[in-house]
Amino acid sequence: MRRILIIGAGRSASSLIRYLLSKSESENLHLVVADLSLALAEKKVNNHPNATPIALDIFNATERKTAIENASIVISMLPAHLHIEIAKDCLEFKKHLVTASYISDAMQCLDTEARKNNLIFMNEIGLDPGIDHMSAMKVIDEIREKGGKMLLFESFCGGLVAPESDNNLWNYKFTWAPRNVVLAGQGGAAKFIQEGTYKYIPYGTLFRRTEFLEVEGYGKFEAYSNRDSLKYRSIYGLDDVLTLYRGTIRRVGFSKAWNMFVQLGMTDDSYIMEDSENMSYRQFTNSFLPYHPTDSVEIKMRLILKIDQDDIMWDKLLELDLFNPDKKVNLKNATPAQILEKILSDSWTLEPDDKDMIVMYHKFGYELNGEKKQIDSKMVCIGDDQTYTAMAKTVGLPVAIATLLILNKKITAPGVQLPIKKEVYLPILKELEEYGVVFNEQTMPYFGYNPDLF
Q1: Can you point out the beta strands (E) in 115-254?
Q2: Contacting residues for 318 by C-beta, under 8 A, at least 6 apart
Q3: How distant, in Å, are the alpha carbons of 25, 41, 53, 370 from that of 50?
Q4: Nearest residue to 266 via CA among 168, 328, 334
Q5: Is 30:6 a contact under the CB 8 Å cutoff?
Q6: Residue 209: burial class (beta carbons within 10 Å; 0-12, 13-18, 19+)
Q7: Are strands 149-161 and 243-251 parallel, antiparallel or unpaired?
Q8: Which of 165, 300, 309, 396 is the most exposed place for a label (fewest CB within 10 A)?
Q9: Rounded distance, CA 205 to CA 200, Å?
């Protein structure tokens, strides 16, 4: 049997494992699901006859190399910084590798060796990055094949809570790594280009510069800018495009409320708060407010944020239990961002029957035969429950489908790569439609922007 080694059995691996197990008989597959937690690996395979759960410490070189040597192909669902040793082992034992992570500089350095050994190291094949690349390149390539010239490309994606499970004032729950949500936008100004002019948004104002989007059947959303919208300009062949912008989708009102945490300093991850393990939620909140001999923490908070007691922003803060003197942080040597993540997890964790929702929205402006047009491409995917989420589906299924395409020699180009070639994106997008990942396209006149506004 063909052995697929899956390293990492976390949240994003659930749909990936289920898909490959469903194909195991017809495709002659045996899955080896490896995780530091044997119990988690066992839970994900659920006694399936074509799967073996194993405990694996990737820092144990002997264990790691043995598992990789015995595999036909390797899938790494670990955090990006842990891929590189696995990738080096794949080179040593001549194994293909698939990951959902961004291509790091260290991974890119293996490209020459991968090509020399005719190995495919497919990366960025999840949701974002992944489905965003594939769905964008499909439309961009179609426009170019007709002789069109690209003028604008905007791309937005967000992991949200589905309407039927949306029961808090923030209209949000964690569907992915909470830490990434808390630290979003940090590390430098967001940069993009609009009507040929470079634009920059510093972190301090990022969440007050949003764009509004409408998705039929799901209402209105907002999006704030990703840190580097220009990263894929050359990769997509958009060096001459006038407008290029990538953003993260949230429900309207989220960004304005999140900005309160940014302004207070609660998202800072650069220093440790003293005696954090004994700190109450109320003490944590008070740490960012000025001293006053008589004013309560609540009054000081409203004064510094300039919000009234009947403001919805105040209700959102109250909902998070930020002023509770009895709840303890219980995190030793924690940064403000780590403590905020802990507090938010109390309120924003998906319940067992909760459903999440992925929304992706692309805008393509182009000129063809002297006429300017725009294509809006929208995709909404709803999860099943807390385990088989829309996030797990849209991250895991492209990884799984790509793995089979590589095993079956339908994807053949070697090297370190992302899924922007037709041989990759066409079959994957087509199969994803069977699982409810469907893009609906609408063509309309393109009016562009008024340069004076930007």
Answers
A1: 120-122, 149-161, 190-194, 197-201, 210-215, 219-225, 243-251
A2: none
A3: 8, 14, 10, 57
A4: 334
A5: no
A6: middle
A7: parallel
A8: 309
A9: 10
Provide the residue type at 389 as one letter: T
- The dihedral over CA atoms of 404, 409, 410, 416, expressed in degrees to the nearest 10, equals 80
Measured in whole angstroms, how far is the alpha carbon of residue 100 from the centre of its chain?
A: 10
Contact between 419 and 402 (Cβ < 8 Å)? yes
Cα separation, 267 vs 264, in Å, equals: 8
* Single-letter amino acid, residue 165: S
Handedness of CA 223, 228, 234, 240 (dihedral sign): positive
Rounded CA-CA distance 166/258 in Å is 17
Whether omega for the bond prior to residue 129 falls within 30 degrees of 0, making it cis, is yes
Q: Tokens 């929702």: give the residue.
A: 357
User: In this model, does residue 446 exceed pLDDT 90?
Assistant: no
* First-to-last C-alpha distance (Å) of the chain: 58
Nearest CA to 125 out of 114, 115, 135 is that of 135
On whether the CB atoms of residues 9 and 392 are closer than 8 A, the answer is no
C-alpha of 185 from chain center: 13
Give per-residue pLDDT as tens, 367-382.
999 999 999 999 999 9
Contact 359, 352 (CB under 8 A): no
d(CA 223, CA 255): 8
The pTM is what? 0.91
Residue 186 pLDDT exceeds 70: yes
Do residues 375 and 138 lie in contact, with contact meaning Cβ atoms separated by under 8 Å?
A: no
What is the average pLDDT score of the chain?
94
Query: 389-411 burial by CB neighbour count: b if 16+ within 10 A, else e?
Result: bbbbbbbbbbbbbbbbbbbeeeb
Q: Which residue has the tokens 């439609």?
A: 433
Q: Is the pLDDT of residue 453 over 60?
A: no
What is the reported pLDDT for 71?
A: 96
pLDDT per residue as tens digits for the range 126-157:
998 999 999 999 999 999 999 999 999 999 99
Give 441's DSSP letter: E
Contacts of range 204-209, beta carbons closer than 8 Å, 24 or more positions apart: 204/262, 204/263, 206/262, 207/255, 207/256, 207/258, 207/259, 207/262, 208/255, 208/256, 208/259
